[in-house]
Fold O-antigen ligase-related domain-containing protein.
Amino acid sequence: MTATIPVHNAQTDWRQTLPQQILSWLPVTLFFQVGLMYAGLVLFLLSWAFSGDWKNKISQIRSSALFVPVLALSVVSVLIGLIHPRPEGEFAAAFLHYQSYCLLFPMLSLRGGAWQNRAVKNFFFGAILAATLFYLNALGALPAIKLFKSYVVYEGNKSILLGLLLAIAAAWMLHEWRLRKNQHAWRALAFIYVLLALVLCAKSRTASLLFILLCGVLVCRNFRFRWWQVFASGAVLTALVFAINYIAHLPSPVTCLAKQMHDVHQMHGAEIMMNRAICTVHQVRDFGQTKQVSEDGMRLELYMNTWQMITASPWIGHGIGNWLPMYQQKAQGQISEKMTTPHNDYLLYWFELGLGGLVALLAIWLTQLRIAFRMVNSEHSERAMLVSMLTLSMMFAACFNAILRDGVFAFAMLILLAIPMAGVSHTTSK
């Protein structure tokens, strides 16, 4: 009898810790083909389903501060789905995307522990590995196989995600560097290694701006501004205004498409980033004057057209999955006619779900910030900044990309969000 008890306990412990181990390695899969991430999520959900302890899991899920706002978003999506026509071939996938946040709850039901620190380290390892692949591709030494395809050619949302992940990883590295009292030289080298890959190789405007934003969050983390912080912030803003004014009067680049800059005009790294920055300022200037956009600046046209359609039904929206067919009809003959999303989650949620959907989305993200604020004065204080930075990353990136509408973005962000938030009690996030 006594010999069988330890075996049973070992089996129970193994089953309960396996989901944590799988989740701790999922951040590495984010830097490769999306199929690896999906396979990892399936393994996680299977291990979670067979790990037992359902009473505690359900209790942890129901006590989460995110439970009500996520449930509210699901309810709104169901009601809107019943009110409006459901376009064939679009509705099912669009409806499921509005339930993406439900995937977070199995992750939040896990107990906190040392696996969370390993998960952060694995995320840093993935970022360093991604930076290395970017450098190898810049040197022409990366094989063009499917596993590394996102580093060799531009793959739309996947390539954008790689830039965002590098920006988040670099900011998290800065936070860890500030907290830890050891290995400063190695931490500095890793941070610089990832940051240079972000600026010189990823060539993502959104990601570069995101990194600057997250650095500002770190500087203002306590909302207790010293004189040098106020002076530095004012100097940066002043310099930014003068820089934008100066760039607006520069000659237009030969092209605003990153692929043409690289393939046709043999530009690299910082030169591409500088040209794209100039293009961005010129696109905003030209759109304000003539309402005309180039292929690279079609987001401005997307936003204007989508906003005009929102004003036709701001309260109950136009229905799930209806943005694409309605936009293609409105934008006939325009350069953005073939776009599949408005590249802005706020506009998309408002357009399809109405004001209730937009409010539900904002309630989720504001709840995440409230959880982070509560974590500051708890045993989870070191992870509070990670939650804050990731939430602000989602809110910022949603201005320019389909962060929740596309599973490539949504699942990656939810995996990262679960790492610092798992094990946070209801009393902490209340």
